[in-house]
């Protein structure tokens, strides 16, 4: 009996099976979701996602925590935001965080959600950057607005923390410490998170 054709067929079958397995991996990395998006009359530009390190692309990862699904956990050291899901999984997003002197940590809750929010620079920020005084009454929504396409407003027992989870037009700041303390995500990612997160959700920010 000539075993060569059988062995070749088996090898091809194994190769196809392995190819099927590996093709499942990238299905959990949403690198193709950063194209141009029309949203509420605004045209978000596409993101050159190949220039963003792969670990900061939106993806589903294994994530063990005692926190219930729907909780948001922010790891400012690793520059990741996790939206806790069922079955030991989380949706992970790359983030930009507060620069030196503007870091923060703690527990809060989402008190409000806003699409295409108005941005009002805090008085202290205007003091540091007087050119922002023209926006003291609020900067209108738009693709150049620092809060981007969505904002989640964080409150604790003392009220408004002043911190937000929000979008940003500055995609190249993801994975870096450049903000004034808020947690920023690529606009396409904050839209995804906004659609998942609920008002009242617990947010844990770790340093």
Automatic annotation (TrEMBL):
<dbReference type="InterPro" id="IPR038063">
    <property type="entry name" value="Transpep_catalytic_dom"/>
</dbReference>
<feature type="active site" description="Nucleophile">
    <location>
        <position position="182"/>
    </location>
</feature>
<comment type="similarity">
    <text>Belongs to the YkuD family.</text>
</comment>
<dbReference type="GO" id="GO:0016740">
    <property type="term" value="F:transferase activity"/>
</dbReference>
<feature type="active site" description="Proton donor/acceptor">
    <location>
        <position position="166"/>
    </location>
</feature>
<keyword id="KW-0378">Hydrolase</keyword>
<protein>
    <submittedName>
        <fullName>L,D-transpeptidase YnhG</fullName>
        <ecNumber>2.-.-.-</ecNumber>
    </submittedName>
</protein>
<dbReference type="Pfam" id="PF03734">
    <property type="entry name" value="YkuD"/>
</dbReference>
<dbReference type="InterPro" id="IPR050979">
    <property type="entry name" value="LD-transpeptidase"/>
</dbReference>
<keyword id="KW-0133">Cell shape</keyword>
<keyword id="KW-0808">Transferase</keyword>
<feature type="domain" description="L,D-TPase catalytic">
    <location>
        <begin position="70"/>
        <end position="206"/>
    </location>
</feature>
<keyword id="KW-0328">Glycosyltransferase</keyword>
<keyword id="KW-0732">Signal</keyword>
<comment type="pathway">
    <text>Cell wall biogenesis; peptidoglycan biosynthesis.</text>
</comment>
<keyword id="KW-0573">Peptidoglycan synthesis</keyword>
<feature type="signal peptide">
    <location>
        <begin position="1"/>
        <end position="19"/>
    </location>
</feature>
<dbReference type="InterPro" id="IPR005490">
    <property type="entry name" value="LD_TPept_cat_dom"/>
</dbReference>
<keyword id="KW-0961">Cell wall biogenesis/degradation</keyword>
């Amino acid at each position: 009996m000539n075993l060569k054709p059988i062995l070749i067929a088996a090898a091809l079958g194994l190769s196809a099976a392995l190819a099927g397995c590996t093709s499942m991996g990238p299905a959990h990395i949403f690198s193709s979701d950063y194209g141009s998006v029309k949203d509420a009359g605004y045209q978000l530009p596409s993101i050159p996602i190949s220039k963003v390190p792969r670990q900061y692309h939106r993806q589903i990862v294994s994530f063990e925590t005692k926190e219930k699904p729907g909780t948001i956990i922010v790891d400012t050291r690793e520059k990741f935001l996790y939206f806790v899901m069922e079955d030991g999984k989380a949706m992970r997003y790359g983030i930009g965080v507060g620069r030196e002197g503007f870091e923060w940590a703690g527990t809060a809750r989402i008190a409000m959600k806003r699409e295409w929010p108005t941005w009002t620079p805090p008085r202290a920020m205007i003091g540091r950057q007087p050119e922002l005084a023209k926006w003291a009454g609020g900067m209108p929504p738009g693709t150049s607005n620092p809060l981007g396409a969505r904002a989640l407003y964080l409150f604790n027992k003392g009220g408004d923390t002043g911190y937000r989870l929000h979008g940003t037009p500055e995609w190249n700041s993801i994975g870096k410490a450049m903000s004034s303390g808020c947690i920023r995500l690529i606009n396409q990612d904050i839209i995804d998170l906004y659609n998942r997160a609920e008002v009242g959700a617990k947010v844990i920010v770790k340093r």
